[in-house]
Design brief:
two-stranded antiparallel ribbon, 2 helices, elongated, membrane, transmembrane helix, cell membrane
Length: 67
């Protein structure tokens, strides 16, 4: 893990990764909402939570692989 210094404020890398994962999730939700309306996704809240955790895990893994 680590932290990033932004204008004298230390911000945890996990917070940055979480915000990035949420931004990607919101973009994906624009496309996945059509499937929710058609009934292809039974429990959208649980589906979106799992998708967010997967995106956060991928972002963390990618960050750890690069650094």
């Amino acid at each position: 893990m680590g932290e990033m210094n932004i204008y004298g404020v230390y911000v945890p890398m996990l917070l940055i990764q979480a915000i990035a994962a949420y931004a990607v999730l919101r973009v994906l939700m624009l496309f996945l909402d059509k499937w929710v309306e058609q009934g292809w996704i039974a429990m959208p809240s649980v589906f979106y939570l799992c998708l967010y955790v997967i995106l956060l895990g991928c972002g963390h893994w990618l960050s750890a692989a690069v650094l």
